[in-house]
Design brief:
The complex is a heterodimer of chains A (113) and B (111). Chain A has 113 residues and is an all-beta fold. Chain A has no helices and eleven strands. Helix content of chain A is 0%, strand content 52%. Classes of the chains: A mainly beta (113), B mainly beta (111).
Chain lengths: 113, 111
C-alpha cells in the first residue's frame, strides 16, 4: 500500500513564526503536491514538484515556499506565518505519468494564533 | 483556468436512501475525472473516469462521465452511516499530473 506520511496531525504556531510541514512518501513517486483545504473552497494547490530540486507554483503560492532535496520528501515552508494561513494542509504524491491517481497523507491542521 | 463545480454542497439522508452527487467541469484539455472520499483524514481514491458513458462500479458506489455535457455523477445506493463523508471531484489535464478540485459535497447519512 502507498503510504504518504505527514509529520504532524495538529500544529499551533504564533504569527510571524517560521513553520515547516514535512511530507514523506514510500512509493518512489516522482510527483509530490501540497494543498490547503478550507470550508467552501475545496482543495487548492499551493506548490508541486516533478522531481528532486524541481518545483512549480500552484494556484495559491503566495506566502509559501517548498523544498525537495530528496525524492521521498517534500517540505512546505511558511516563512512568516499569518492567521490567514490557518488551514488543513494535505500532501499528495503520484507517479510522473499523468492519468494516475494521487495518494494523500492524513493532513496537518495548522492553527496560527 | 480549470473549474470544477460540485452539487449539492451538502446533503442529509437516511440509511437506505439512494443519493446522486454531481460534478461539472470546464477544462482546456481533459484527461480524466477522479472521485475521492474524505472522512476525517486523507482523501481516498474511489474512481477515475476517462471515457464517456462507461459506468465504473464498486459495491454500492458507481460513477459515470459525460464528456459532451462536461459532467459526472456519483451514485450511492442503499446508503449506510459509514458513507458519511465529503466526496471530492477533481479533473486532470493532458498536460500534466496536477488536479483541480471542486468544493466537495458533505454527505451525512443518519440511522
Amino acid at each position: 500500500d502507498v503510504k504518504v506520511t505527514q509529520s504532524s496531525r495538529y500544529l499551533v504556531k504564533r504569527t510571524g513564526e517560521k513553520v515547516f510541514l514535512e511530507c514523506v512518501q514510500d512509493m518512489d513517486h516522482e510527483n509530490m503536491f501540497w494543498y490547503r483545504q478550507d470550508p467552501g473552497l475545496g482543495l487548492r494547490l499551493i506548490y508541486f514538484s516533478y522531481d528532486v530540486k524541481m518545483k512549480e507554483k500552484g494556484d495559491i503560492p503566495e506566502g509559501y515556499s517548498v523544498s525537495r532535496e530528496k525524492k521521498e520528501r517534500f517540505s512546505l515552508i511558511l516563512e512568516s506565518a499569518s492567521t490567514n494561513q490557518t488551514s488543513m494542509y494535505l500532501c499528495a504524491s503520484s507517479f510522473w505519468r499523468g492519468g494516475l491517481s494521487q495518494y494523500f497523507g492524513a493532513g496537518t491542521r495548522l492553527s496560527v494564533l | 483556468e480549470d473549474k470544477v463545480v460540485q452539487s449539492p454542497l451538502s446533503l442529509v439522508v437516511h440509511e437506505g436512501d439512494t443519493v446522486t452527487l454531481n460534478c461539472s467541469y470546464e477544462v482546456t484539455n481533459f484527461r480524466s475525472l477522479l472521485w475521492y472520499k474524505q472522512e476525517k483524514k486523507a482523501p481516498t481514491f474511489l474512481f477515475m473516469l476517462t471515457s464517456s458513458g462507461i459506468e465504473k462500479k464498486s459495491g454500492r458506489l458507481s460513477s459515470i462521465l459525460d464528456k459532451k455535457e462536461l459532467f459526472s455523477i456519483l451514485n450511492i445506493t442503499a446508503t449506510q452511516t459509514g458513507d458519511s463523508a465529503v466526496y471530492l471531484c477533481a479533473v486532470q489535464e493532458t498536460s500534466g499530473s496536477r488536479l483541480t478540485f471542486g468544493e466537495g459535497t458533505q454527505l451525512t447519512v443518519n440511522p
